[in-house]
Amino acid sequence: MRFARTTAIAAALTALLLPATAQAAPAGAAIRDPGQTLTAPVRDVLAQLPIEAEDRTGYQRDAFKHWVDADKDGCSTRAEVLKAEAVIAPEQGPRCTLTGGQWYSPYDDRYIDGPRGLDIDHLVPLAEAWDSGASQWSPAEREAYANDLGDDRALIAVSAASNRSKADQDPTTWLPPAAGYRCQYVTDWIADKMRWGLSIDDSEQAALSDNLNGCPNVPVTVELAR
Questions:
Q1: pLDDT band at residue 32, thresholds of 50, 70 and 90?
Q2: Could you write out the DSSP letters of every residue in 45-56?
Q3: Which tens digits make up the pLDDT trace of 78-99?
Q4: Helix (H) / strand (E) containing 97
Q5: Does residue 193 contact residue 207 with C-beta atoms inside 8 Å?
Q6: What's residue 26's pLDDT?
Q7: What pLDDT score was predicted for residue 13?
């Protein structure tokens, strides 16, 4: 389930990277400008992603600072996602402590009561982002990536079990157990990689292409973060 995040929160993070206004541009544009909006069929977006070998040299999870409270309202990025994606809203206590509520985990087609059984998944895991180009980013860019509330596809509340099963795998070796969600998953993966200018490797490209063969070639709109 997708919900718009709070505009002020997204602005607080993307201000690190983006100009004040976005510019529309053709989907085939070769030059990337932060804030530029691209729309194209998902297979065309996949074709635009650079193909490069991955390299995990030097990766540490704490290179991506999270979960931050970008708008200083007392709620971390994790809490903001939980509040936005709740099917039944939780109660919010002191220091943004959340209790009760219900969520739907699309990875494994489950409803989960209470926030303790949930993880906030980075759709493209932090380690995968590092492998695909984020190792060259500034700390501010990695923080913005790890707390991306500017695109509903980037962070998603899912069952802890499904998220830990996924770990840092890409679609070559892991897809959601709920087969009916897989087209959405690979489409969102491609959009997230385009948004952040991340590359894919040969096996990843093949897996994404193979999965898309059984999916609608839906239009994807992406606002470039960098």
A1: confident
A2: HHHHSPB-----
A3: 999 999 999 999 999 999 999 9
A4: none
A5: no
A6: 36
A7: 41
Distance CA 215, CA 121 (A): 23
Is 192:170 a contact under the CB 8 Å cutoff?
A: no
Pairwise CA distance, residues 49 & 4, whole Å: 26
| CB distance 223 to 17 below 8 Å | no
Residues 81, 87 contacting (CB under 8 angstroms): no
Cβ contact 73:151 at 8 Å: no
Tokens 């099963």 sit on residue:
165
Task: Please check whether residue 41 is in contact with residue 50, taking contact to mean a CB–CB distance below 8 angstroms.
Answer: no
E runs forming strands in 106-154 = 110-113, 118-122
User: Whats the size of the chain, residue-wise?
Assistant: 226
Nearest 10 degrees: Cα torsion 91, 96, 76, 177:
-30
At residue 5, the pLDDT reads 42
